[in-house]
Amino acid sequence: MTAGTMRVLGGEVSPFTARARLALELRGVAYELLDEPLGPKKSDRLLAANPVYGKIPVLLLPDGRAICESAVIVQYVEDVVRGTGGAEAGGLLLPDDPYERAMHRFWTVFIDDKFWPALDAVSLAPTADERAQAVVDTRAALNRLEEVFKDRSSGAAFFSGRDAAPGLLDLALGCFLPALRACERLHGLSLIDASATPLLDGWSRRFAAHPAAKRILPDTDKVVQFTKFLQEMFG
Ligand code: GSH
Predict the structure, then answer these.
(1) CB burial class (10 A; 0-12, 13-18, 19+) of residue 117?
(2) Measuring from each residue's beta carbon to the nearest atom of ligand 1, which residues come in under 6 Å?
(3) Residues 104-116 as b or e (16 or more Cβ within 10 Å = b)
(4) Which whole-number Å values give the CA distances from 3 to 29, 32, 165, 171, in the listed order?
(5) What is the mean pLDDT of residues 103-122?
(6) Buried b (16+ CB within 10 A) or exposed e, 68-89
(7) Which of 21, 23, 154, 228 sees the fewest Cβ atoms within 10 Å?
(8) Nearest protein Cα to ligand 1, atom 15
(9) What digits encode the pLDDT tens for the residues 81-95?
């Protein structure tokens, strides 16, 4: 990858943008963040780069080609760095074993399809009943991810099975930690904690303390403000 020429269309409080940026940071790829204001009207730049979904993040390659979908971007970064025999070749973001790689991809899809919609609905579902159900669904997804951590981490610090380096699955869930903490604060809930999900509790502290996460993840305060703005917009 040519340093300094990658660009990310994204937003500072966007969890999916954080996921893509974390991969670039962890792999030491320089990039520029182009802030893409999200509102009812999407910019021509975003629609040209992501005509299918019109969503951020989009990774713009030095030659202008675009890659959409945060988990696809993470895997692209991994593929390119492996392909160039980068200093960390041998699998930093995904395990080497094909079955393990498949499992990490499977649970990444679960996080996006089950966990995130449930967490999002805790703040944004239209009715009280739906919000209550969303809390139940969020807890159920986290309980499942507690089991996944036990199975995949092999006792290491991260889902990646390593003590020093987070991988795809860590990024997939970790990008939502600010949203989760904001949701806890806004609704007086405790979702990841030492009694309900002790393994995820330890993991979340280690992930948040990782230098790349410290650089990229937005402050909980900012996410609280953004969530309130969304509640007003959709409420
Ligand atoms: N599956 C997508 C990914 O992983 O990149 C989700 C991206 C996504 O939902 N991005 C949000 C967005 O662009 C911001 S965090 N929302 C604007 C919209 O839905 O119109």
Answers:
(1) middle
(2) 14-16, 38, 54-57, 69-71, 112
(3) bbebbebbbebbb
(4) 6, 10, 22, 22
(5) 98
(6) bbbbebbbbbbeebbeeebeee
(7) 154
(8) 14
(9) 887 765 554 568 999
Scanning the chain, the segments in alpha helix (DSSP H) are 15-26, 44-49, 70-83, 98-110, 116-124, 128-153, 168-174, 177-187, 198-209, 211-216, 220-234
Query: Which residue lies with its CA nearest to atom 9 of ligand 1?
Result: 55
- 99's tokens: 């079955």
Cis peptide before 57 (omega within 30 of 0): yes
Ligand 1 atom, smallest distance to 38 CA: 17
pLDDT of 3 reads 47
* pLDDT for residue 5 is more than 90: no
Look over the chain and give the mean of its residue pLDDT values, rounded to a whole number.
93
Q: Report the 3 state secondary structure along 138-206.
A: HHHHHHHHHHHHHHHHCCCCCCCCCCCCCCHHHHHHHCCHHHHHHHHHHHCCCCCCCCCCHHHHHHHHH
pLDDT at 85: 62
The interface pTM score, or ipTM, of the predicted complex is 0.99
**What does the chain come to in residues?**
235
